[in-house]
Design brief:
The chain is α/β, with parallel strands linked by helices. It has eight helices and 14 strands.
């Protein structure tokens, strides 16, 4: 298995903060954001860490280097920012024939459970496993994606569901999707089958997974962490920083 970290986007909604720097190297609690994903990736039994870079890639590559905690690091350039699925597709040759675990370089997880999820994957052997987090406020799910489950498997995924969908009871209103997902290597064959979102003009991650669901592949959910931050706007940086202020210096609760 390989670890794939997507870190190619600018993060336009962060304004001047990312005018001249990749958002994945913005500091949270004194550390570049991408290092939180790197720490999770290094704990898994991955043969290599592949990082997709694009916008202002040089500084990120300088910070990370060619090895992270004993794991070799390889870089793939996404020349045009066309979304997550396109970034995954760019990494196809570097992933080779191995399965892979996806990370987003702008996500931060509190008490991540990647080791436990790796055991779950070994036992269940899913085609895809989606890392989820439990939420009390269903409105948070509108930032990522929702799932519908039957008999313990995911049977539908909805990107950024509106309030009506969440209240309808057709999807889980207590589980919020993240970008931390396991994929069988055959997922690459589903990219051409994934529809282009008419609003954003790119293929979306939930729709890629849904293409596998519609083909009757085994898709499972897994509770990946206790708390989750996806840094897209300044408020989310403040939220992540405020979490750390509740704990004493030197105590690392995100790993």
């Amino acid at each position: 298995m390989k670890a794939l970290i997507l870190a190619g986007g600018r993060g336009k909604r962060l304004g001047e903060l990312t005018q001249s720097k990749n958002k994945c190297i913005l500091e949270i609690h004194g550390r570049p954001l991408v290092t939180y994903s790197l720490d999770c990736a290094s704990q898994m039994d991955a043969s290599e860490i592949v990082i997709v870079v694009g916008y202002q890639a040089d500084e990120l590559m300088k910070i990370v280097g060619n090895e992270y905690k004993g794991k070799p690091v390889r870089y793939v350039f996404q020349k045009e920012q066309k979304g997550l699925v396109h970034a995954i597709e760019c990494a196809k040759d570097s992933i080779g024939k191995e399965n892979f675990f996806l990370f987003l370089g702008d996500e931060l997880m509190v008490n991540p459970k990647h080791k436990e999820m790796a055991c779950f994957i070994q036992q269940e052997k899913p085609f895809v496993s989606c890392g989820m987090i439990k939420v009390q406020d269903p409105n948070l799910i509108s930032k990522t994606y929702a799932i519908k489950e039957e008999n313990g498997s995911i049977v539908d995924l909805i990107e950024k569901p509106d309030a009506g969908v969440l209240k309808s009871g057709t999807v889980r209103a207590d589980l919020m999707g993240t970008g931390n997902c396991f994929f069988n290597n055959e997922i690459f064959s589903y990219i051409p089958r994934t529809p282009i979102n008419p609003k954003r003009g790119e293929r979306e991650l939930p729709d890629l997974i849904k293409a596998a669901v519609l083909d009757h592949q085994k898709v499972k959910s897994y509770l990946i962490c206790d708390e989750y931050y996806n840094v897209n706007v300044k408020e989310e940086i403040r939220d992540a920083e405020s979490f750390f202020t509740h704990f004493s210096e030197g105590e690392d609760h995100a790993l």
